[in-house]
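## retry 2 of 3
previous attempt timed out at serialization; input unchanged, resubmitting
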Amino acid sequence: MKILVSEKVAKVGIDRLRDVHEVDTYSYLTHEELVKIIPNYDALIVRGETIVDSEVIEAAKNLKVIGRAGLEVDHIDIQAATRKGIIVLNAPQGNSTSSIEYTLGMILALSREIPQAYYSVKNGRWDRQRFIGTEVRDKVLGILGLGRVGSGVARRAKAFAMKVLAFDPFISEEKAAEVGVELVDFELLLSKADYLTLHLPTTVDTRNLLNKEAFSRMKKGVRIINCAKSGIIDEKALIWALEEGIVAGAALDNFEQEPLDIVSPLLKMDNVICTPRLASRSIEAENEVAIGVARAVIAALDAEPVATSLNIPPVSKDVMSTIRPFLNLVEKMGTLAVNITEGRIKQVEVRYNGRISMVDTKILTLAAIKGILNPILQEAVNYVNAPEVAKSRGIIVSEVKNKEARNFVDLITVSVKTDKGEHRVAGSLFGKTEGRIVEIDNFRVDIDPKGWLLLIPHEDCPGMIGKVGTVLGDNDINIISMQVAQTKDAGTNIMIVGIQKEIELEVLIKLKELTGIQNVKKVYFA
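## retry succeeded, writing output
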């Protein structure tokens, strides 16, 4: 078969592909050039620069697989590929060691001011007193996110005799103990950490997680390391914290704007190290990623199971025709369930009632896990690796089936149990294809899971809708839908508000401060 490699991929991967297939390689293709030539190919391999949108996919008459040599797939339209039956896969593990080692390198460079000392010598100075530095031994390393990279950093930091604390509400205490890490809450981590390293995805909940308020609660003299994602640190707040002396130094490999503007205040600060997104780049990582994506593409072209597939694995046509309308709905139900959940996830139960209980629902359960874990983990969770990711975090997953269904011909319920309680989201189809969320805990609702939603439980008293509407209107937030649901027990309602754009933290705080408002949760459905 014919394989197109549209960006530079390490030679070891290309050689492996050429052992069995015909391969054409390019260092760069414009979007127009890609659309023009893609009909000739059975497989496409890209890095991070090639945009594989719906136009490319529609033009790909013979395409069977898209391989990403690396982790991130934001530039690939996975839904469009799935609709055409094209497998999308990546190579997520090849650069983990590179990222782990780079993070440790940044910690040491920050502690001993190695780049600054080198620059000083290069400019003819010999400032031995200026660059004495500090040891990492017996210091507290705080880790935000204990996934593959975060855990690797923790293990290696222990070898430096550091005390390691971590905040990750989605991993069990038992799993953290295996790594030798003490789990703590976010507030305690901020107050105790001498070093704080980030290993989280950028999501609705983690965007600007380290803001001015968070920096204000940190231990004075803390050092910040970010070799993960941009968007988690509010850079203006970081600059303020550096100027105030709250943060003693920062080592950054990701930025809100890339390339980093030459006039950025970060580049003028002697206690800040900036690098151009190098954490995942090493010779070994490049080779591992190339070999990994080559193996996976060859397997996919041979119709073999692919562990790094990011969309639907093969199932029978009969089963797929039944479950297809539910797939997107169930994943969004999982996303909603985890967004209203607090505490550490212990168990996920997916209950099937009605006709849907009589078919193989494994893929639907995987969709629920995918929806629960993807918003909170740095690593991509797909239909193939979802069980292993859940298991690695100590999450028990179960299915319950019953042919009987009340109120609906088919009803699927996703329950998430944590150490602080349980939340439940149920959904069904209206007609044959329209997925709707019909229950949240004890509230009967009717939600079309699209765009931005606010979930606002509140006291059952007059004027609540007006209060919420006034705050949103005053802050230029357009309401596109609204409904109020009541539990069987009078006293508490829930308001579900569809809004046109993301709501800022300051507006959320204003809503939460309204008399009678019990909580405010924001959720985004892609």
